[in-house]
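Translate sequence into structure tokens.
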Amino acid sequence: MSEARVAIITGAASGIGRALAVHYAGQGVRSVIGTFPGDPHDPQETLRSVRDAGGEAVVHEVDVRSTASVDAFAQRAVDEYGRLDYAVANAGILRHSSLLDMTDARWTDMLDVDLTGVLRTLRAGAERMTEGGAMVAVSSIAGAVYGWEGHAHYAAAKAGVLGLIRSVAVELGPQGIRANAVIPGLIETPQSLDPVNSLGPDGLARAGKDIPWGRVGTPAEVASVIAFLTSSQAGYVTGQSLIVDGGLTVKMRA
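Result follows.
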């Protein structure tokens, strides 16, 4: 069995997931690029970028709402490369809904992807990892730190990710598997650029002026933190949640 590390990454057709696959390529980590069949972004672009960076990867369609689909996704790493070392639960959806318009279906659909989908990914990874494995789940400052008007379901899911990670870290620690979360702030991704369900380009530009670092973040900046958390450099770090926000959440408001 090859000693090169292998990662599964959900939501890797664009944004943070794509940036992570490319970052891993530069480290010699092979990736299974998870893509949702209905995603408008082309996972082949991620694959091309990985190969341009000198890496190796395969594309695999996965629906994190389905246990069978997620299990097959994680198994693809073992079948393709003979091992699984890192599981990154990055897939998520973002939908605007006021509390009074929040139907049970809207609530359930959001949590099924953004929270239970994370559970399915971590569980499938844990079943196939050996000692030395690592997991990272992507949360958000919306829910993990702040409330967000019109997004109670999203915030609830992202807050839940933190409790899930802490418990998984405790449970899997004796097996030598670490679990951590990243909490991105305002990052320029296709999701945040959506003017209907998120801030959109103009909103991001305005918000960036209020961030101590002077701008919104990039997917690559979050990806590098995820890569650190899965690496041996973070070998004694587990059950933690690391905010990546350019100082947004520590700035005092007048």
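Note: The first helix runs from residue 15 to 27.
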